[in-house]
Amino acid sequence: MIRIALALLLSLIAPAAALAQSNEKTVSIVLVHGAFVDGSGWKAVFDILANKGYEVLVVQNPTISLNGDVAATQQVISAARHPVILVGHSYGGMVITEAGDNPKVRGLVYIAAFAPDAGESVASLGEQPVPPGESGAPLLPPHDGYLLVDPAKFPNAFAADVDASITRFMAIAQVPWGLEAVQTKITKVAWKAKPSHFMVTTNDLMIPPTFLRAFAKRSNATTVEINSSHAVMLSHPEEVAAFIETAGSAK
Fold first, then answer.
1. CATH number at residue 48
2. 7 lies in a domain?
3. What transmembrane ranges does the database entry give (predicted)?
Protein backbone atom coordinates (compact mmCIF):
# COMPACT_ATOMS: atom_id res chain seq x y z
CA MET A 1 0.00 0.00 0.00
CA ILE A 2 2.85 2.37 0.89
CA ARG A 3 4.57 1.58 -2.41
CA ILE A 4 1.38 2.33 -4.35
CA ALA A 5 0.93 5.65 -2.54
CA LEU A 6 4.56 6.58 -3.18
CA ALA A 7 4.28 5.71 -6.85
CA LEU A 8 1.12 7.80 -7.12
CA LEU A 9 2.85 10.75 -5.45
CA LEU A 10 5.81 10.51 -7.79
CA SER A 11 3.51 10.36 -10.79
CA LEU A 12 1.96 13.66 -9.71
CA ILE A 13 5.26 15.39 -8.91
CA ALA A 14 7.13 14.42 -12.08
CA PRO A 15 4.84 16.24 -14.58
CA ALA A 16 4.79 19.35 -12.38
CA ALA A 17 8.58 19.37 -12.17
CA ALA A 18 8.87 18.88 -15.92
CA LEU A 19 6.42 21.75 -16.51
CA ALA A 20 8.39 24.05 -14.20
CA GLN A 21 11.62 23.12 -15.96
CA SER A 22 10.12 23.68 -19.41
CA ASN A 23 8.86 27.11 -18.28
CA GLU A 24 12.31 28.27 -17.15
CA LYS A 25 13.80 30.89 -19.44
CA THR A 26 17.32 30.75 -20.82
CA VAL A 27 18.35 34.23 -19.61
CA SER A 28 18.65 35.64 -16.11
CA ILE A 29 17.51 39.17 -15.32
CA VAL A 30 19.52 41.30 -12.89
CA LEU A 31 17.77 44.42 -11.58
CA VAL A 32 19.87 47.37 -10.39
CA HIS A 33 18.18 50.18 -8.46
CA GLY A 34 19.14 53.85 -8.48
CA ALA A 35 19.91 56.50 -5.90
CA PHE A 36 17.83 57.32 -2.79
CA VAL A 37 15.98 53.96 -2.88
CA ASP A 38 16.76 50.26 -2.53
CA GLY A 39 16.00 47.07 -4.42
CA SER A 40 12.50 46.70 -2.95
CA GLY A 41 11.21 49.13 -5.58
CA TRP A 42 11.57 46.32 -8.12
CA LYS A 43 9.15 43.97 -6.31
CA ALA A 44 6.23 44.25 -8.73
CA VAL A 45 8.50 43.82 -11.76
CA PHE A 46 10.28 40.95 -10.02
CA ASP A 47 6.99 39.15 -9.36
CA ILE A 48 5.82 39.47 -12.97
CA LEU A 49 9.05 38.18 -14.48
CA ALA A 50 9.64 35.44 -11.91
CA ASN A 51 6.11 34.13 -12.46
CA LYS A 52 6.93 33.83 -16.17
CA GLY A 53 9.87 31.54 -15.45
CA TYR A 54 12.79 33.95 -15.40
CA GLU A 55 15.54 33.78 -12.84
CA VAL A 56 15.37 37.34 -11.48
CA LEU A 57 18.08 38.66 -9.19
CA VAL A 58 18.08 42.00 -7.39
CA VAL A 59 21.18 44.01 -6.51
CA GLN A 60 21.25 45.98 -3.26
CA ASN A 61 23.62 48.84 -4.02
CA PRO A 62 25.11 50.71 -1.05
CA THR A 63 25.14 53.85 -3.29
CA ILE A 64 28.20 55.11 -1.41
CA SER A 65 30.66 54.74 -4.30
CA LEU A 66 30.31 53.79 -7.95
CA ASN A 67 33.06 51.18 -7.61
CA GLY A 68 31.26 49.61 -4.65
CA ASP A 69 27.99 49.44 -6.55
CA VAL A 70 29.68 47.94 -9.60
CA ALA A 71 31.30 45.32 -7.35
CA ALA A 72 27.93 44.48 -5.77
CA THR A 73 26.43 44.09 -9.23
CA GLN A 74 29.28 41.89 -10.45
CA GLN A 75 28.69 39.54 -7.52
CA VAL A 76 25.06 39.12 -8.51
CA ILE A 77 25.94 38.63 -12.18
CA SER A 78 28.35 35.87 -11.16
CA ALA A 79 25.57 34.14 -9.20
CA ALA A 80 23.16 34.07 -12.17
CA ARG A 81 22.54 30.66 -13.75
CA HIS A 82 22.19 31.97 -17.31
CA PRO A 83 23.46 34.77 -19.57
CA VAL A 84 22.31 38.06 -18.07
CA ILE A 85 20.06 40.90 -19.13
CA LEU A 86 21.28 43.75 -16.93
CA VAL A 87 18.64 46.35 -16.03
CA GLY A 88 19.36 49.72 -14.42
CA HIS A 89 17.00 52.42 -13.19
CA SER A 90 18.18 56.04 -12.85
CA TYR A 91 21.70 56.07 -11.31
CA GLY A 92 21.60 52.30 -11.86
CA GLY A 93 22.34 53.15 -15.50
CA MET A 94 25.79 54.35 -14.45
CA VAL A 95 26.33 51.04 -12.67
CA ILE A 96 25.22 48.80 -15.54
CA THR A 97 27.27 50.78 -18.05
CA GLU A 98 30.42 49.90 -16.10
CA ALA A 99 29.40 46.43 -14.84
CA GLY A 100 27.89 45.41 -18.18
CA ASP A 101 31.38 44.91 -19.60
CA ASN A 102 31.18 41.47 -17.94
CA PRO A 103 31.17 38.78 -20.70
CA LYS A 104 28.22 37.09 -19.01
CA VAL A 105 26.02 40.12 -19.79
CA ARG A 106 24.10 39.68 -23.02
CA GLY A 107 22.21 42.98 -23.11
CA LEU A 108 21.45 46.18 -21.23
CA VAL A 109 18.14 47.80 -20.32
CA TYR A 110 18.06 51.43 -19.21
CA ILE A 111 14.90 52.46 -17.38
CA ALA A 112 14.71 56.26 -16.97
CA ALA A 113 18.46 56.02 -16.49
CA PHE A 114 21.79 57.66 -17.10
CA ALA A 115 23.70 56.07 -19.97
CA PRO A 116 27.14 57.69 -19.70
CA ASP A 117 30.10 57.66 -22.03
CA ALA A 118 33.70 57.20 -20.93
CA GLY A 119 34.93 60.02 -18.73
CA GLU A 120 31.44 61.11 -17.71
CA SER A 121 30.01 61.11 -14.19
CA VAL A 122 26.61 61.96 -12.77
CA ALA A 123 28.15 65.24 -11.66
CA SER A 124 29.41 66.15 -15.14
CA LEU A 125 26.14 65.14 -16.78
CA GLY A 126 24.27 67.22 -14.20
CA GLU A 127 26.19 70.33 -15.23
CA GLN A 128 24.19 70.55 -18.44
CA PRO A 129 21.45 73.20 -18.34
CA VAL A 130 17.95 71.83 -17.79
CA PRO A 131 15.87 72.30 -20.97
CA PRO A 132 13.04 74.86 -20.80
CA GLY A 133 9.83 73.37 -19.42
CA GLU A 134 11.63 70.41 -17.82
CA SER A 135 12.90 69.83 -14.30
CA GLY A 136 15.96 68.49 -12.56
CA ALA A 137 16.09 66.65 -9.26
CA PRO A 138 15.32 68.89 -6.22
CA LEU A 139 18.44 67.95 -4.27
CA LEU A 140 19.39 69.37 -0.92
CA PRO A 141 22.95 70.72 -0.51
CA PRO A 142 25.51 67.98 0.24
CA HIS A 143 25.80 67.04 3.91
CA ASP A 144 28.72 65.01 5.29
CA GLY A 145 29.53 63.72 1.82
CA TYR A 146 26.01 62.62 0.85
CA LEU A 147 23.03 63.90 -1.13
CA LEU A 148 19.29 63.61 -0.47
CA VAL A 149 16.20 64.78 -2.32
CA ASP A 150 14.23 67.47 -0.49
CA PRO A 151 11.69 65.26 1.37
CA ALA A 152 8.89 67.78 0.84
CA LYS A 153 9.44 67.66 -2.93
CA PHE A 154 10.31 63.97 -3.24
CA PRO A 155 6.77 62.57 -3.80
CA ASN A 156 6.02 64.79 -6.78
CA ALA A 157 9.53 64.82 -8.24
CA PHE A 158 10.25 61.10 -7.96
CA ALA A 159 6.87 59.44 -8.32
CA ALA A 160 3.93 61.75 -8.89
CA ASP A 161 1.84 58.90 -10.35
CA VAL A 162 2.37 56.56 -7.36
CA ASP A 163 0.10 56.43 -4.30
CA ALA A 164 0.98 59.29 -1.96
CA SER A 165 1.15 57.04 1.09
CA ILE A 166 3.99 55.13 -0.60
CA THR A 167 5.91 58.18 -1.80
CA ARG A 168 5.68 59.95 1.55
CA PHE A 169 7.29 56.91 3.15
CA MET A 170 9.93 56.75 0.39
CA ALA A 171 10.77 60.41 1.03
CA ILE A 172 11.46 59.71 4.70
CA ALA A 173 13.21 56.39 4.05
CA GLN A 174 15.68 57.74 1.49
CA VAL A 175 19.09 56.09 1.19
CA PRO A 176 21.78 58.83 1.19
CA TRP A 177 23.71 59.02 -2.08
CA GLY A 178 27.48 59.29 -1.69
CA LEU A 179 29.30 62.09 -3.47
CA GLU A 180 31.94 59.56 -4.48
CA ALA A 181 29.27 57.73 -6.49
CA VAL A 182 28.13 61.00 -8.03
CA GLN A 183 31.61 62.23 -8.97
CA THR A 184 33.35 59.05 -10.18
CA LYS A 185 33.86 58.91 -13.94
CA ILE A 186 32.95 55.93 -16.08
CA THR A 187 35.87 53.95 -17.54
CA LYS A 188 34.05 51.09 -19.31
CA VAL A 189 31.09 51.66 -21.63
CA ALA A 190 29.14 48.45 -22.11
CA TRP A 191 26.52 49.94 -24.44
CA LYS A 192 29.20 50.36 -27.12
CA ALA A 193 29.52 46.58 -27.37
CA LYS A 194 26.21 45.18 -26.05
CA PRO A 195 22.65 45.52 -27.43
CA SER A 196 20.81 48.17 -25.46
CA HIS A 197 17.17 49.04 -24.76
CA PHE A 198 16.01 52.35 -23.32
CA MET A 199 12.72 53.41 -21.71
CA VAL A 200 12.19 57.18 -21.71
CA THR A 201 9.80 58.50 -19.06
CA THR A 202 8.14 61.58 -20.53
CA ASN A 203 6.89 63.03 -17.22
CA ASP A 204 10.25 62.62 -15.48
CA LEU A 205 11.07 65.37 -12.97
CA MET A 206 14.35 63.83 -11.79
CA ILE A 207 16.20 63.40 -15.11
CA PRO A 208 14.88 65.65 -17.90
CA PRO A 209 13.28 63.64 -20.73
CA THR A 210 15.45 65.52 -23.24
CA PHE A 211 18.53 64.08 -21.52
CA LEU A 212 17.01 60.58 -21.54
CA ARG A 213 16.31 60.80 -25.27
CA ALA A 214 19.89 61.93 -25.91
CA PHE A 215 21.27 59.00 -23.90
CA ALA A 216 19.08 56.59 -25.85
CA LYS A 217 20.06 58.04 -29.22
CA ARG A 218 23.82 57.99 -28.71
CA SER A 219 23.74 54.44 -27.33
CA ASN A 220 21.81 53.34 -30.44
CA ALA A 221 19.27 51.74 -28.13
CA THR A 222 15.92 50.24 -29.01
CA THR A 223 13.76 52.95 -27.44
CA VAL A 224 10.22 53.32 -26.16
CA GLU A 225 8.58 56.31 -24.48
CA ILE A 226 6.04 56.01 -21.69
CA ASN A 227 3.81 58.59 -20.04
CA SER A 228 5.23 58.12 -16.55
CA SER A 229 7.10 59.67 -13.67
CA HIS A 230 10.68 58.72 -12.86
CA ALA A 231 9.49 55.77 -10.74
CA VAL A 232 8.07 53.89 -13.72
CA MET A 233 8.81 50.47 -12.18
CA LEU A 234 6.31 51.37 -9.44
CA SER A 235 3.63 53.06 -11.55
CA HIS A 236 3.84 50.84 -14.67
CA PRO A 237 5.38 47.50 -13.64
CA GLU A 238 3.62 45.51 -16.39
CA GLU A 239 5.01 47.76 -19.11
CA VAL A 240 8.49 47.71 -17.59
CA ALA A 241 8.47 43.92 -17.29
CA ALA A 242 7.29 43.55 -20.90
CA PHE A 243 10.05 45.86 -22.09
CA ILE A 244 12.67 43.86 -20.22
CA GLU A 245 11.27 40.69 -21.80
CA THR A 246 11.71 42.29 -25.22
CA ALA A 247 15.39 42.79 -24.48
CA GLY A 248 15.66 39.22 -23.23
CA SER A 249 14.25 37.81 -26.44
CA ALA A 250 16.30 40.04 -28.78
CA LYS A 251 18.87 38.26 -30.91
1. 3.40.50.1820
2. no
3. none
